[in-house]
Amino acid sequence: MNPLSTMDCGRRWLTTTGTNPPRRVVEVGDELTADEALRLAVSGTGLAWHGDFQNARNLLSALGRRCAPTAGKSFQDQRNRQARRARILGRLLVPLEPGHVLRLRRGPDVRDACTEVYGPSETPSLVSLRELLGVIGAHEWRVKGVQIPALDAKIHPHYGVFSPVRGEYVDLVARTPLPTKELVFDIGTGTGVLAAVLAHRGVERVVATDSEPRALACARENFERLGFEGIETLETDLFPPGRAPLIVCNPPWLPARAHTPLERAVYDPGSRMLNAFLDRLPRHLTPGGEAWLILSDLAELLDLRPREQLTTAFARAGLEVRGRVDVRPRHPRATDPRDPLHAARAKEVTSLWRLAAG
Q1: Which one, of 192, 197, 182, lies nearest residue 221 by Cα?
Q2: Where is the Methyltransferase small domain (predicted)?
Q3: Which of 75, 107, 209, 336 is deepest in the core (most CB within 10 A)?
Q4: Are 135 and 109 in contact (CB under 8 A)?
Q5: What is the pTM of this model?
Q6: d(Cα 75, Cα 259) in Å, to the nearest integer?
Q7: Strands 12-14 and 125-128: what pairing?
């Protein structure tokens, strides 16, 4: 092994998670054992791989098995263990040449996938193999798309934008009777799937908002693919200017800290987005208007947020519940006993709350 500092590598550090590069990096190859790799990674050392790409993937799998998190006493304990495991696995690194060229034996062509996420590259770089595999997988999803039965078409998610693989919340928006077809605000649009469903149902004007430029770029591309070029998009914190007779929001469901940009679609520290949406909602509903809040009860099942806290937030904002439509999840984790959260997921219910200003 040839030790060198990250600066001595002369390579740009690529990351979408904001993590710092390892202070110490050693060059390693096919001769490195999984046990030695684990020892180095646990100590904080980065492992710059110069062997066969498929062997690097095998090593990453072996490391994953060796530091698989055991069940935590609480949800937060489980999250902390998962974060530690992610840090360890993130220390197996892959060098890229200018233009995001991967020169490892049996390595795939990653140029398009990396350019989509990191932009053009004119210098050598270093990236976590775990992140690179995520980038490759996201590119494949972006090309292949996710079939949405309610649209009879596909949505193409970008890297860092939550994929609509949990179809039950989409079905709720597709099947609940519309109180209006005049104007709808879609708050936190993400891939744009709910805005597209609303337009598909005949809503004349949809305004889709998000605070993430990456999400808005994804949504615009999907609207163009689907022929919904009239959907308006706006980068803003929650609401666009004005009022609407129907406002739809599918906020992050769990009040916990996100560890990656993608997790921001799932985790909402302190329920900040949810509370801000509810508190400001009455000022953006037209008289007699309605809001659809799509929310899972997983936070309640994990003892992260009691139901009373949600109903109290409704009352604080002066909102009344006109009705609620429930659905059981159909995704694989709901029936997978190996999932650390299986006991909660097996009981989970996703609801569309119909809210109105009192």
Answers
A1: 192
A2: 156-296
A3: 209
A4: no
A5: 0.87
A6: 14
A7: parallel
Q: Are residues 182 and 234 in the same domain?
A: yes
Residue 5's pLDDT is 39
**Which residue in 96, 105, 165 sits closest to 131, CA to CA?**
96
* H-run or E-run covering 139: helix 129-144
Residue showing tokens 């996100």: 258
182/249 Cα distance (integer angstroms): 17
Contact at 8 Å (CB) between 278 and 319? Answer: yes
CA dist., res. 180 & res. 337, Å (int):
42
Give CA 138 to chain center in angstroms. 11
Q: What is the rounded average pLDDT of the residues 321-332?
A: 86
Angle at CA of residue 157, ends 203 and 166, nearest 5°: 75
Amino acid type, 279: D
Distance CA 221, CA 240 (A): 20
What pLDDT does 76 receive? Answer: 77
Residue 1: per-residue pLDDT: 44
Lowest model confidence (mean pLDDT) among 30-39, 258-267, 286-295, 333-342: 333-342
SS3 of residue 168 by DSSP: helix
- Rounded Cα distance, 57 and 176, in Å: 45
DSSP conformational letter for 231: -
Burial of 195 (0-12, 13-18, 19+ CB in 10 A): buried
Cα–Cα distance for residue pair 316/169, rounded to 1 Å: 26
Q: Clarify whether residues 135 and 161 are in a common domain.
A: no
Question: Residues 180-190: pLDDT tens digits?
Answer: 999 999 999 99
Domain boundaries, position 12: 2-141
Taking only the tens place, the pLDDT of each residue in 249-301 is 999 878 777 777 667 777 888 889 999 999 999 999 999 999 999 999 888 88
Residue 67, pLDDT score: 85
